[in-house]
Structures are given as structure tokens and as C-alpha cells.
Amino acid sequence: MNCDAARRRLLAAERPDRPTDELRRHLAACPECRVWGRRLVLAEQQIPLLPVPASSAKDAFVRRFRLAGGRAGGPVVRRVPLPWPTPAKERGLRKLSLAVAIAAVLTVFTLGLWSWRPQEATPHPASVPTWVANIRKDREQILALATPRERVEKLSDLAADLQEKARAMTRDGDAENLTSLAALYGEVVSGDLMEHARGLSAAERRVVLGKVVDRLRGAESTFSRLASEHPGASTARPLHDLAFAARDGGRRIRAMMREA
């Protein structure tokens, strides 16, 4: 069976979703006809979704029918000759035309719904504080440096700068910005610093990472002390997060140094 015959049989079938054994064998071996058959089945499944005539037109038809029956003293029954059975080819062409019509109606219906849907207001992006934008810019410049040693040393400096900013924000009680700073600090210490420290040679790890560990140990002590001095303040939670990031970063770097 060739593709043309298979498609004509699918069009002529009352249930194209239940092909005969011969058709099923052809569809199993022909991906194009298989896709074509699925589209035909989908088109027939969309028939119930076609728009229904307005109820007013239906009511008018029923009234005319009842009036005609009333005048004759009963319902009007007309004998209509039954049509000859529709040939398979003609039935297939009708199905194809119906499928095209359904696709067109559904497309117009979908476009109409979309055009009438109320447009949602586009939310404005949240403004980024200047100090956050500057730190991200510095971070991008550091990550563009040539060697892993340069990147690790500059990232350690950036972490120290963030530590000083955290001190100032804690004094001012600026919990919102301190929370944002804690997230940035975690990205620098637990993410960037770890990633680029792995690129150091064994000799560089012993020299460079020792200083990084000392800085992180001092940062953990500072953040823990500040949190204990303000236990009930809104800044306590971000300070604990900062202390955890410094402690976790120091622990992982010490493990890296032991591997060298």
C-alpha cells in the first residue's frame, strides 16, 4: 500500500483512529502518514468545539415548526427520499474539507479570544541599588582577569570590602540592604572563590589560600559578634547568614589545601 492509498482510506474511514491491520502496518512504517493520520483524528475530535448557533435562532425554528404543525392539526411529516450511499472518495473529500474548515474556525476563535483578553500591565523591573550594581561590575572585572591567582586574590579583597559594608549597614540598622549584601557575599565566597581556587597549582594553593582562610576566619568572628550584639534586631538573620558563608568557605578552602 502506498501513501496515497493509505490517506484515501483514512479519509473514507468512519473511525480513522481505528485503522485496519493493513493500514496500521503502513502507518508503522511511514512516519509522514502517521503524522498525517494523527492530524486527521485531531481535526475530527475538534468538531464538538465548533460554535453552536445562538439559542434565538433555534427558538425561532421551533416556533415555525410548531405553527406549521398547528395549522394542519398535528405535526407535519414529509416523506423525503433517502439519499444514495455516499461513495468513499466523496466522503473522504468531505472530511478533508471539514477538517480545513474546523482548523480555520478554531484559528479565528483563538485569535479573537486573544485580542479581547485584557492586557496585563507589564511590571517594571525592580530598581537595583547603586552599590549592588557597582559590586557586580567589580565582580565581572575580577572574573575577567587572566590567571586563577589574580582572580582568587581580588575576590578575597572583594569579600573583605563586603565585610566592611556589612559593619556600616549593621550600625545603621539597614536590614534590607544587609540581606542583599549577604546574598552577594555568599555568591563570592561560596561560589566564585571556590571555583577559581581549584585552578591554582599545588604551590599557589599553599601560598594564596592561607591568606584567604585567615580573612574568612576573621570575617566569621566579626559577623558572629555583631549578631550576638543585636540578637533581636532585624539585622541578626543576615548577619548569621554572613557568618555561615564565611565559616563554610573557610572549611572548604582548608580541605582544598589538604588536597594539594
Short description:
This protein has about 260 residues and is mainly alpha-helical. The protein has 10 helices and no strands.
Notable traits:
single chain; 260 residues; mainly alpha; elongated
What does this structure look like?
The chain contains ten helices and no strands. The relative contact order is 0.07. About 11% of the residues have low confidence. The protein is elongated. It has 260 residues and is an all-alpha fold. Helix 1 packs across helix 5, helix 7 packs antiparallel against helix 8 and helix 8 runs parallel beside helix 10. It has two domains: 102 residues, no CATH class; 130 residues, no CATH class.
Order of helices and strands: HHHHHHHHHH
Separation of termini? Answer: 70 Å
Quick one: biggest sheet? none
**Basic shape:** elongated
Mean pLDDT: 78
Structural class determined from secondary elements: mainly alpha
Number of strands: 0
* Continuous helix count: 10
Proportion in β-strands: under 5%
Q: Work out the radius of gyration.
A: 38 Å
Number of spatially distinct domains: 2
